[in-house]
Write a structure and sequence with these properties.
heterodimer; A: mainly alpha; minor pseudopilin epsh fold; 10 helices; 3 strands; B: 312 residues; alpha+beta; 3-stranded antiparallel beta sheet; 11 helices; 47% helix; disordered C terminus; SOD_C_sf (chain A); manganese (chain A); superoxide dismutase activity (chain A); oxidoreductase (chain A)
Chain lengths: 239, 312
């Protein structure tokens, strides 16, 4: 029941409530639709200009306020339409909405992680992981340098727009580097994959500053990578 | 043969590879017939490398107008990067990729179809298709473009979309809902069956229609059978980010209102129709030949049998 996740617990309970009167139930459901969870743009833990000179304040502001906001807006819109379609048992619309949900919902998920993956230098951005994640990186990739090289190479080679990830495969208990197209979240590459670090390689992420030179953006971004966040996720997910 | 009026003359060291191209192999090749003709300013240039070795290289073709000609709608800076860096990188990387491979010496259109490999994409595909797409895109625009098409093209647009305004809305929608990187296209589509030896009934003009399509990344209509591309818009972010940032819908609107070269689109339609007509005539001729052959081969044995029995 994938639809379940789309409702807040409160909404779900009221919809699943066994109402003997179908008309009343119908009214209840449509009133309850206002309770549909509305996603909002998360705040950044730092100022737009705090990642300069690696990422300009202008890029950060557009990226957060415009791009991420648009994914959030369109995700909410699609969820509302989905809610209506499911309510009307309109299967063709329900299925048709999946693309918009995957794209906009994926955009929201990915960017929410991305902001946490970054930190200003004075707040620890770029400081290499020295804990269990650091060990795991050495074990799986040889060294942090080797991992960075691998991510940069895969990110640069990605055609069109997408993301390059460092993920944890919870089942195989190993670290993986993966790329996803467009706004596909990492989980589309395998249900047991958890994102530790995602780098946005859409042109909007670097174009105003790096123009066509994506490799330079990738080379520089490591100076503001928040390994502390990746380590926390790793600790939590691998225990 | 009427050429696209916007094409720039090729340098004298170049020859037109397309004239040597004969569509034959796969279904995908059939519709190339149209495209290589109107893009026959896509030249292969032979350069002598050293005294003995001759290598074929694709060259970066300039847009058919100066880089500042579409200001302020599409800035010179955008062109300097989009044409001067991105398009150039596709050309350079393609040349590197194909050097010494089976693809070396093939036309650009052939390279695209071969490297598409029926969807199981080979490495050269992205660069080859992006080179072609960008050439096609530059030629889809002109200074003082936009407005409304006329003549046959307008008639077909009204027939297939209801009205020009409805067409514009649909085209804009396709371009703005291409999730991620890619292209939106107007193409002239033949209604033909590609399965095995399907008999395609004699097609009438009503069987062919204009369609709006979108494609991800580098994919273009050359890889789909019987689609003749007429117009395209690049919706990779690099196409509009310096001028419009995240406002893709604004870029698409201004492209339709002020940049589209309807002359180029009309001319491509004319070329597509000519190519289709030529192929249909050829098919009709073959069909008649086959018919004649089968009627003769059905007719001849009969007297032979009589002749045989006579001699017995
Ligand atoms: Fe992004
Ligand atoms: Fe482009």
């Amino acid at each position: 029941m994938a639809i379940r996740t789309l409702f807040t617990r409160k909404t779900l309970t009221s919809i699943l409530r066994n109402d003997p009167n179908p008309i009343v139930a119908g009214i209840a459901a449509s009133t309850q639709s206002r309770d549909l969870h509305v996603f909002t743009l998360p705040d950044l833990a730092y100022d737009y200009g705090a990642l300069e000179p690696v990422i300009s304040g202008e890029i950060m502001q557009l990226h957060h306020q415009k791009h991420h906001q648009t994914y959030v807006t369109n995700y909410n819109k699609a969820l509302e339409q989905l809610h209506d379609a499911v309510g009307k048992a309109d299967s063709s619309t329900t299925v048709k909405l999946q693309n918009a949900i995957k794209f906009n919902g994926g955009g929201h998920i990915n960017h929410s992680i991305f902001w946490k993956n970054l930190a200003p230098v004075r707040e620890g951005g770029g400081e290499p992981p020295r804990d269990s994640l650091g060990w795991a990186i050495d074990t799986h990739f040889g060294s942090l340098e080797a991992l960075i090289q691998k991510i940069n190479a895969e990110g640069a080679a990605l055609q069109g727009s997408g993301w390059v990830w460092l993920g944890l495969d919870k089942e195989l208990k190993r670290l993986v580097v993966e790329t996803t197209a467009n706004q596909d979240p990492l989980v589309t590459k395998g249900p047991s994959l958890v994102p530790l670090l995602g780098i946005d390689v859409w042109e909007h992420a670097y174009y105003l500053q790096y123009k066509n030179v994506r490799p330079d953006y990738l080379k520089n971004i490591w100076k503001v990578i928040n390994w502390k966040y990746a380590s926390e996720v790793y600790e939590k997910e691998s225990s | 043969m009427k050429l696209l009026s916007l094409s720039t003359p090729d340098s004298t060291t170049c020859y037109l590879s397309s004239s040597a191209f004969l569509p034959s192999h796969s279904n995908g090749f059939q519709n190339l017939a149209s495209t290589f003709k109107f893009s026959n300013n896509q030249a292969r240039c032979i350069r002598k490398a050293g005294a003995t070795k001759v290598t074929a290289k694709f060259e970066l073709k300039p847009p058919p107008y100066p880089l500042n000609a579409l200001e302020p709608i599409m800035s010179q800076e955008t062109f300097e990067y989009h044409w001067g860096k991105h398009h150039r990188a596709y050309v350079d990387n393609l040349n590197k990729q194909i050097e010494g491979t089976d693809l070396d010496g093939k036309s650009l259109e052939e390279t695209i179809v071969i490297a598409y490999n029926n969807g199981d994409i080979l490495p050269a595909f992205n660069n080859a298709a992006q080179v072609w797409n960008h050439d096609f895109f530059w030629e889809s625009m002109k200074p003082g473009g936009g407005g409304k098409p006329s003549g046959e093209l307008l008639k077909l647009i009204e027939r297939d979309f209801g009205s020009f305004e409805k067409f514009v809305d649909q085209f804009k929608l396709a371009a703005s809902t291409q999730f991620g990187s890619g292209w939106a296209w107007l193409a002239y589509k033949e209604n033909r069956l590609d399965v095995g030896n399907a008999v395609n009934p004699l097609a009438t003009d009503e069987d062919k229609k204009l369609v709006i399509l979108k494609s991800p990344n580098a994919v273009n209509p050359l890889v789909w059978s019987h689609h003749h591309p007429l117009l395209t818009i690049d919706v990779l972010e690099h196409a509009y980010y310096l001028d419009y940032q995240n406002r893709r819908p604004d870029y698409i609107s201004v492209f339709m209102n002020k940049l589209v070269s309807w002359e180029a689109v009309s001319s491509r339609l004319e070329q597509a129709k000519a190519v289709i007509a030529e192929r249909e005539r050829e098919e009709e001729r073959k069909r008649r030949e086959e018919e004649e052959k089968s009627t003769t081969s059905e007719a001849t044995p009969t007297p032979e049998i009589f002749a045989d029995s006579d001699t017995d």
